[in-house]
Amino acid sequence: MELSDAYIDSFIQPRDELLQEMEQYAAEHHVPIMQLSGIEALNQLLRLQKPQTILEIGTAIGYSAIRMAQALSEVQIVTIERDEVRVEKARDFVGRSGLANRITIVEGDALDVDVESIRSTYDAVFIDAAKGQYQKFFEKYSPLVPSGGVLYIDNMYMHGLSDLDIKEVPRRKRTMIRNLKTFTDWIMQHPDYTCAFFPVGDGLLICLKR
Ligand code: SAH
Ligand code: MG
Asked: How much is the pLDDT for 154?
């Protein structure tokens, strides 16, 4: 079963021209930006949490960063992307959005780069990058989140693959799915976090730090 559906999407309000251009670019170039229902839900949770700073892992072309910055008028976002073509596109779109003063794009592998030199804590971390590495991202970046902060983790459903018997998962994706499940089991039992699975978009896991 698909989590996102046309019924929910039918109520989503139109986006401005730049966002529509980005959505079209993403569709044409197969850039996996967040689904509309997913970003709407994430933004609403962020409005409730009211973080002052967000660290995003996986900028792609800057779509979710721009959407989050538009939802929270004061927030400062640092976002990491390793693909240089996407970084260039993201810089261009962020520049045109007028939000470059609140969105800092860091080019590099999230497992190598240093964002602590930009700031030492982040109220929210949004993980939306290589799905097989979620545990590593979590281990590296969760120490930067203060008590009461939140980690939002996208694509927990992996387009339905997470829910299949591993033998039914295409061979080249098995390691990634195994890693994702190991991570999910680990974080759900972690004593320092209270996590809940939100069945929206491609599956959003929300972990509140105690
Ligand atoms: N958050 C974006 C979509 C991100 S798609 C949006 O919704 O608009 C995932 C991105 O993560 C891809 O562009 C990919 O290049 C990047 N990525 C994957 N692994 C990464 C890593 N280890 N470090 C930095 N970026 C990574
Ligand atoms: Mg995603």
From this structure: 95
Query: Are 99 and 66 within 8 A, CB to CB?
Result: yes
Residue 62, domain extent: 5-155
Question: Encoding tokens for residue 177?
Answer: 């799915």
Distance from Cα 191 to the centre of ligand 2, integer Å: 26
Q: Which among 21, 57, 155 is the best mutation to test ligand 1's pocket, defined by most ligand atoms within 8 Å of the CB?
A: 57
Candidates 56, 106, 128, 200: which one to mutate for ligand 1, based on the most atoms within 8 Å of Cβ?
A: 128
Closest atom, ligand 1, to C-alpha of 60: 13
Question: The tokens 């030492």 sit on which residue?
Answer: 120
Helix then strand then coil, % of the chain, to nearest 5: 45, 15, 40
Distance 105 CA to ligand 1 centre (A): 12
User: How many domains is the chain partitioned into structurally?
Assistant: 1
In this predicted structure, what is the pLDDT of residue 8? Answer: 85
Segment 153-173, tens digit of pLDDT: 999 988 888 888 999 999 999
Instruction: Tell me the C-alpha to C-alpha distance, in Å, between residue 102 and each of 97, 120, 173, 182.
Output: 11, 17, 36, 35
CATH number at residue 32: 3.40.50.150
